[in-house]
Amino acid sequence: MKFSKTITLWYSNNKRELPWRQTKDPYYIWLSEIILQQTQVVQGLPYYVKFTHSFPSVFHLANAGESDVLKLWQGLGYYSRARNLHATAKYIANALNGKFPNNYKDLLKLKGVGDYTASAIASICFNEATAVVDGNVYRVLSRYFGIDTPINSSQGNKEFKQLAQELIDVKNPATFNQAIMEFGATQCKPQNPDCNICPFNSSCIAFNKNRISELPVKLKAAKVKKRNFNFLVFIFNDKKTILEKREGKGIWQNLYQFPLIETEKATTFDDFVKLVKKHPIVKDKLVEMVLYNEDSIVHKLSHQHLYTKFWIVQVDRTSKNGILTSEIQNYAVPILIGNFIERFNFDSFNTFN
Question: Which of 235, 238, 249, 316 sits between 20 and 30 A of 325, alpha carbons compared?
Fold first, then answer.
């Protein structure tokens, strides 16, 4: 089909040189695809380099501690990806003797692997003609064919998958899949694409009907929840602080954070002091407390916005279960906490002196 030939020709002349394109090893392809979920190449590339350096094989990744994996992942967000990555590595190393499934159907059974990732690995590593459909592909197909079906609807999922499957070059599915993804990432961009140099500008419905900014169509997301987080940065007499491991399900599962008090709304200083004095760690040993940031730091997640304040709390005793502030960098923490730790100098902080 002309579409397939045109986009693969474009790819041969315009593709970026990326490390995972130099191999067909399923471990490296799988690793790159998991890292690049919800992540742009420019952000994900350094993480890919770090992971392949620290864990050059699926056995190295499987034998790593979860805290080491989460620490290396720090800053990428969507930490369930890292946990699934580690779990799948252990399964492949221990149950499959280090060999990845060699077809789409069996790849889909792996934890953290959905239709897109299974299609990418199956086509790139095993030449199976199964089409990838990610955000880039949705955009290209929606604009070129003028499709109004919302891409985040069940109908949209089926329609675009079927269309991509009809278009795929069955003789060279790996190149086609990489070509259409690359085309969406660098040519048919979300905002202000340069349609004048696009090889499809004579036949693209969105371009010829002036609908580039309208497509693809996406259903409105649910209302974002606002939450007020107050982190207590304890400072004890023995130069220690407290980090707590988040247990149970959640976006930051198994990551570390400072003790947290969540309030229904932003609180006044005096009212919050009363809450802190009741905290079991303080036990009437509070010497002084200061608010590190007057304005809340807004940390935006896909379904909630965290309005965050850090409170520096001096406690007049030594700690029982604290960690040395000099060792705090060794713990896997959410990027919100990590950014604070980088800015805040525990050694030079002398508010209470």
Answer: 249
Q: What is the pLDDT of residues 64-111, one digit of tens each?
A: 999 999 999 999 988 999 999 999 999 999 999 999 999 999 999 999
Give catalytic status of residue 33 as yes or no. yes
Contacts of 96 (CB under 8 A, 6+ apart): none
d(CA 33, CA 118): 9
For the chain, which domains are there?
2-208 (1.10.340.30), 225-343 (3.90.79.10)
Per DSSP, which regions of the chain are E strands?
A: 225-235, 240-241, 244-245, 256-257, 260-263, 286-291, 297-300, 304-315, 323-324
Q: What single-letter amino acid sits at 116?
A: Y
From the candidates 17, 33, 262, 342, which is the catalytic residue?
Answer: 33
Query: Which among 86, 99, 94, 83 is positioned nearest to 27, based on CA atoms?
Result: 99
Its pTM surpasses 0.85: no
Secondary structure of residue 171 in the 3-state scheme: coil
CB 27 within 8 A of CB 36: no
- CA distances (Å), origin 285, targets 105, 259, 323, 347: 60, 16, 18, 21
Strand (E) or helix (H) holding 229: strand 225-235
Residue keyed to tokens 């069996």: 106
* Contact of 123 with 174, CB cutoff 8 Å: yes
For 134, the token pair is 């990610």
Furthest-apart CA pair in the chain: how many Å? Answer: 76
* pLDDT tens digits along 193-204: 999 999 999 999
